[in-house]
Amino acid sequence: MHFTSEQRLDDGVLEREFTLGEIPGTLWTPESAGPVPLILMSHNNGLPRREARLVARARYTAAQGYAVVSIDAAGCGDRPRSAAAEQARAELGRAMRAGDPVDRIDEIFESLVGPLVENAVPEWRATLDAVLELPGIEGPVGYTSWTALGIRLAAVEPRIAAVGFFAGGYVPRAQREEARQVTVPLLFLLQWDDEGNPRQRALDLFDAFGSKEKTLHANLGGHLGTPRFELVDGDRFFGRHLK
Amino acid sequence: MHFTSEQRLDDGVLEREFTLGEIPGTLWTPESAGPVPLILMSHNNGLPRREARLVARARYTAAQGYAVVSIDAAGCGDRPRSAAAEQARAELGRAMRAGDPVDRIDEIFESLVGPLVENAVPEWRATLDAVLELPGIEGPVGYTSWTALGIRLAAVEPRIAAVGFFAGGYVPRAQREEARQVTVPLLFLLQWDDEGNPRQRALDLFDAFGSKEKTLHANLGGHLGTPRFELVDGDRFFGRHLK
Q1: Per the CB < 8 Å rule, is B216 touching A216?
Q2: Per-residue model confidence as pLDDT tens digits over B170-186
Q3: Coil, helix or strand for B168?
Q4: Are B220 and A206 an interchain contact pair (Cβ–Cβ within 8 Å)?
Q5: End-to-end distance of chain A based on CA atoms, in angstroms?
Q6: Nearest Cβ partner for A240 among B216, B229, B240
Q7: C-alpha torsion sign, points B94, B221, B204, A199
Q8: Inter-chain contact B217–A216, Cβ cutoff 8 Å?
Q9: Per-residue pLDDT reduced to its tens digit, B10-22
Q10: d(CA B229, CA B205)
Q11: Structure pTM?
Q12: Residue A205 binned pLDDT confidence (cut-offs 50, 70, 90)
């Protein structure tokens, strides 16, 4: 893990850019001294890790006393584009806007997101290894955001102690089947009118998780309408399980 | 409103029993000086207002800086029993345990709970009038617990500024139709495996509310399994809207 820049922010959080092999990432750590838990904060839909909403969430979370790490997925953010993935992403957007049948969307989704999840898992595990070697970051480890990746990671990575997922109307078939293997405490966040995530499928996914302690929070509105108080609720959820 | 006893509790909360005409009730107020908001805390299923879980919730809420008032519904708690209601309640319990068809349960439910809601509304409005005349209790007013009554009260009572409902798989037909008239901020609490509240009907009810700001919290487990952290979440919800 090689740090390429660092900046102390207004809220006392230290923001450090790094590379780990070819993976670019950002690590946010709080001002507080003692050892802190770690939260892996991912994001799907080809968003860069520097997207403003994601950065704001990471900074808020770090200021509450966590180390937060994010990396760009292959083909996203600072990483080289893949023509095939860009094309599949454009086709997925077109099909969703056109209201294509669920089966057709599933098919494009599977071909795009299935491999993305497969490739992201070893990168996130390598990142987890590297960050936990840094002084003052001891775990336990939480995971938040991208549902499909989180299902696979929680199923294979015993160091993950709690997960917060968002949306989840579309996830690859393999992760729908793996959902029952997720057994850690889980907070599932759903936008009731999310145009890109069929509500019933998201509810079915919530039902499928194997966790004995799982909570669904649903709010009125579309994909980007999550109310700000859910940030505080997410912090309280991780506080119960990681602190 | 005639106070019949008072007791200062360990947490500083003042617990006062009262009668308002033939209605027996309890008022909990916090130690703090200044004016406080008011929460109407109801309960259905023929529970007495002195039921231990309800009292614990009322005391916790009062200690967070609210006046909390509860009254016994007709035929419940300290009030004279009605043979017809007792029989309908026994029949409802039997039908639920036996897994009778939803239509049959609806029919018994309608005959029992429909009139209960009708009769409870003027009693709760009279209670609201009386409590708001007491010094130091100024509103705004929140309502929590019994879904069917809360729908009717929120639809007819403009002083109610926020509502927290629980369960809601079975509510009388009139209240299912009135749900769209509920337009204040709403927190809807659902137990995912509540044996007595069909999940899909509760989700349909959540969907029907007219509120622009509504949040669903669902947790794994049966009717009595609501996790303790929901008490804190409920307090934060009312804090956003009443304080």
Answers
A1: yes
A2: 899 999 999 999 999 99
A3: coil
A4: no
A5: 26
A6: B229
A7: negative
A8: yes
A9: 999 999 999 999 9
A10: 24
A11: 0.92
A12: very high
